[in-house]
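User: quick one, sequence for these tokens?
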């Protein structure tokens, strides 16, 4: 898969309701949570787009842009659509977007590299990672061709990534990890403490 055809996209538009504050701005191991994922993906793409509805801090780079959700309260699917619209409106040449959540500090670029290398573009327009029997619906590669369908379904009230992906047909790339879960995500303050313990072990 040609990385030059893919826009790296970090979905940071969530309300962080369970966490109680914008978790992208929380520090873990001396770094903002959002910078953990940015550090892993920044050299894998020509450009990175952050979708966030807050004025947030993140590592400075000329490769990184930020945009707000087109419409609020549409969940991750709304963030995906916002990124696709940004590609079109900015006259970018990207054919795909690769999405990442803001709250997975143990994800490594090698996983991304393996994921992209396993994708056969002739098999579909949407690809997710699956590991240890869990499908990770935010770690995806989405064809820009899905934009009109996604916009229509969002306007009709669809909000669940799982259901929408199943309806359009998603291909899954299966990966196995024997040690720590690289997809561990931080939804609560307890999760943050757990991550700190893992980092310190």
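Assistant:
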């Amino acid at each position: 898969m040609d990385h030059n055809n893919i826009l790296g996209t970090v979905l940071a538009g969530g309300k962080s309701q369970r966490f109680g504050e914008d978790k992208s701005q929380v520090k873990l191991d001396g770094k903002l949570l959002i910078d953990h994922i940015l550090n892993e993906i920044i050299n894998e793409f020509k450009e990175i787009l952050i979708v966030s509805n807050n004025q947030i801090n993140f590592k400075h780079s000329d490769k990184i842009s930020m945009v707000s959700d087109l419409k609020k309260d549409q969940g991750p699917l709304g963030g995906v659509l916002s990124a696709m619209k940004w590609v079109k409106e900015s006259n970018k040449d990207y054919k795909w977007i690769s999405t990442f959540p803001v709250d997975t500090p143990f994800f490594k670029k090698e996983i991304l590299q393996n994921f992209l290398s396993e994708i056969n573009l002739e098999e579909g327009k949407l690809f997710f990672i699956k590991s240890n029997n869990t499908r990770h619906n935010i770690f995806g590669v989405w064809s820009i061709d899905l934009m009109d369908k996604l916009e229509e379904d969002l306007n009709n009230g669809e909000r669940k990534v799982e259901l929408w992906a199943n309806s359009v047909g998603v291909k899954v790339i299966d990966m196995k990890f024997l040690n720590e879960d690289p997809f561990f995500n931080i939804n609560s303050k307890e999760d943050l403490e757990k991550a700190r313990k893992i980092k310190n072990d």
